[in-house]
Amino acid sequence: MKRTKILGACLITAMSVLSVACNNNNPQAEKATETTTKTTSPAELKIAYVEVDSIMSQYKFCKDFSLILQKKGQNIQSTLASKQQSLEAAAANFQQKIQQNAYTREQAEAIQAGLQKQGADLQVLNQRLSNEFQVETEKYNTALRDSIQNFLAKYNKDKKYSLILSKAGDNLLYADKAYDITNEVIAGLNKAYKPIEKSQPSKEEKAKK
What pTM did the predictor assign? Predict the structure, then answer.
């Protein structure tokens, strides 16, 4: 649930978006896909690259949803920890009472069965909240991918790049800064971005009540 893991998911999503051919409107590119007898020579390629780390740190959408997921993860951990502590306290109290012969056999069996059910319910809750968190993460990653793809499609109508590459760390052995369009892409993404509306109380927050 840590923020680094969340940002890591964003990074993978952004790289998968940026590391594909982007010039879908280039007649030469379309013609090249229709025939195997003609290939595009290197001289005809127009290439650019984007620093993925900069998008992750400066794109407002990614920063916003990273905070949302971080908060959701913390809420899940808090909910599960609280219920786990309550169950452990109840189990400890039960053991103490057993040692004091405070229950009849029937009472002890009933209480033990109740504690076992609480433990099973907690495991179910853990799985459900984890699944919800995964679904939420995938939803935002899809939205991130779509926002970048939609922007690049519009951006590239005028720029007409044959390829826009993602640069993260040293995945590109060499990249001339002349081909760096990171600032343009980030500025365009942020200009088109509409802040995420505040959501209703999450299910894990309701589970606390």
Answer: 0.69
